[in-house]
Amino acid sequence: MGNDQRIAGISSAIRVIADFPKPGIMFQDITTLLLDVKAFKDTIDLFVERYQGKNISVVAGIEARGFIFGPPIALAIGAKFVPLRKPRKLPGEVISEEYSLEYGTDKMEMHVGAVQEGESALVIDDLIATGGTLCAAIKLLERVGAQVVECACVIELPELKGRDKLGEKPLFVLVSSD
Asked: Which intervals hold domain Phosphoribosyltransferase (predicted)?
């Protein structure tokens, strides 16, 4: 896939904004990717090509940008989409997983019964930085007996070593920020 011409188009469609949301951060802005119909379609197509026929029954999208990429992938591969949300955003009974942030902690929640024991899941988000949210998503899904097949992100910030936190869990990334 390294020589796939679509990757260059996807990479060039992602805008980098310096010092957002605070000084020293080079923010990877996917809103420009979403405005580029070809790059957005290529992004979805690359994920679908990878996961089609892999017997994945759940695409779990991490709030909020995993909600953009997850549903079209889920529909294309014949899987259900399960939103993984911030606390108090889901109306029904939930299970939650706490995870560490740079300063403090946060929680991720999922509806009870959304995922069944034995289901195969793909976790999707726009970006992996420190890996905290992906790890929380994996734990949440595994607690209900799902098997996380892989994590998938459009962008990786390799200098933050989030991939290392995933242990043996495979990570598929389209664009690396290095």
From this structure: 43-164
